[in-house]
Amino acid sequence: MKRYSIMRLRMNNEYRPYIVYAKRRETPTVVELSLEPQDGVRPDFIPGQFVNISLPEVGPEAKSYTIASTPLDELIVVAVREAGDFSQALCGRKVGEEVLLSEPLGYFYPEDAQTPRVFVAGGIGVMPFVSIARAGSGASTILLYSNRAAHDVPFHAMLSELERENKNFSVKHFITRENSPLHGAVNGRIGPEHLARALQDYPEGNFFLCGSIIFVRDMRLVLKDLFVPEERIYTESFF
Description:
This protein is an alpha/beta fold. It is 21% helix and 32% strand. It has helices at residues 85-91, 127-135, 156-165, 192-201, 213-225, and strands at residues 5-7, 16-27, 30-37, 50-54, 63-66, 76-81, 98-101, 117-122, 141-147, 169-175, 186-187, 206-212, 233-238. The longest helix is centred in the last third of the chain and has 13 residues, at 213-225. It starts with a strand and ends with a strand. One of its GO terms (molecular function) is oxidoreductase activity.
């Protein structure tokens, strides 16, 4: 298996018009958008991939968002955290209004269905893992999921349901800025002891890290200190 480190930058590819089919507020700071291609042809994708979204009236730069839906769904679903002019404009799109999407991109996904997986997510970095977990697999998987506050955990209900339905999938929550009311959550950050325990439980597992540049850097350094081989570490970072 190869290791990919993906920095999400604008890519030179064609954009197609999509219509906002539905929108809902997932948390106080995150909005979920369901997007329908105007031509009725939804592109194929692999769970874990992302699309670039362009809003020409906001500026020339596109932004990248991971696809939260699965290849069996009819729509492209993305989750947007309201942080900055672009994301606020995107969240402000009304049902029926247009956005421009690239084709699905990226290589941040498991390449086989059986190797155990340790997913490590910071905040909205959980999105690749939502799509991968929803798509299903026989591989044993644990998600270590860090957020600042218990009331602002994207897709908490969906992940809990997936955990109940799939005996091979489990979630461990970490809440960093308050005492968490979430059952079983750790009050604090994902630390070396937690990654060491995951390595002990999944000695042959691959580690997938997704979150801010600093979050991914710190998690990767811990894994290196634990002597996890580079080829078993997959990373994806965002600004």
